[in-house]
Design a protein that fits this description.
With 241 residues, the protein is α+β, with helices and mostly antiparallel strands. The chain has six helices and twelve strands. The strands form two sheets. Strands 1, 2, 3, 4, 5, 6, 9, 11 and 12 form a nine-stranded mixed β-sheet that branches. The chain has a three-stranded antiparallel β-sheet with strand order 8-7-10, with no helix packed on it.
Length: 241
């Protein structure tokens, strides 16, 4: 008997056409004064749990205190895009999908100049941000989480995700054998999951990953992605960032 095929951990679904991506990028550029500077060549439009809660000394101010204003701006300018993303994910996950304004709406990563990696950076991680938020509703007893990235602009040399088909449980097993986050890329090569503008990459369960480097960057390059996660509750999936 042949073994049953494994379910894919990362899949791609089409969301926007090329013109739609250009329009989103242009609209985002008009909002540049509202971008949050996160580092050299790295900004966001919108709040992110991993930055404004996990990496913050005062989440009450940086996340919860700014939530209503940033959610209102994203909903005003990108509401149709959020609705489209929810529609696509509902079809993929075969369950209702919704947003909740009491947590941050999906937002944008923008990388420019030196922010675009041309060498691998030791930033591999699992998307487990849901564990640090105060959820205003009970999440499912059996933890279920997804993450998604929708590229709307990529550098001339493209963009990708480095993926290890390793879950948190598998990583814990490897750590007991002496492996670590810092050495995993030397002992277990990642596979490169190429992005395409307008096509959303979805992690159906948290897997070890990082932003992939590209071979060369050019002055006009931009790497713009809509980012978000989903967590299950009794009624379906709630999307956030």
């Amino acid at each position: 008997m042949e073994p049953l095929p494994l379910e894919p951990l990362v899949v791609d679904v089409d969301v926007l056409d090329e013109q739609g991506c250009v329009e989103v990028g242009d609209r985002l550029e008009t909002l540049r004064p509202h971008w949050l500077i996160r580092g050299i060549g790295c900004s966001t439009l919108g709040l992110a749990t991993y930055l404004d809660v996990m990496a913050s000394d005062d989440p009450e101010e940086t996340y919860f205190g700014r939530l209503a204003r940033h959610n209102r701006m994203i909903r005003e300018h990108f509401g149709a895009l959020l609705d489209r993303v929810a529609e696509v994910l509902a079809g993929l996950l075969r369950m209702p999908v919704r947003y909740d304004e009491r947590v941050a709406l999906p937002g944008f990563h923008v990388f420019e100049g030196d922010g675009i990696a041309v060498e691998p950076r030791p930033s591999q991680h699992f998307d487990l941000q849901h564990r640090v938020l105060r959820w205003p509703f009970p999440i499912a007893p059996v933890e279920q989480a997804v993450s998604f990235t929708l590229p709307v602009a990529l550098p001339r040399r493209g963009g990708a995700l480095d993926v290890w088909d390793i879950t948190e449980a598998e990583m814990l097993r490897l750590e007991r054998l002496g492996r670590s986050f810092e050495t995993i890329d030397r002992t277990t090569p990642a596979r490169r999951h190429e992005y395409r503008v307008g096509r959303m990459t979805v992690q159906l369960t948290p897997v070890l990953h990082r932003i992939a480097a590209i071979s060369e960057r050019f002055p006009a390059d931009r790497r713009i992605t809509l980012q978000g996660h989903g967590i299950r509750d009794a009624d379906g999936w709630v999307l956030y960032w």
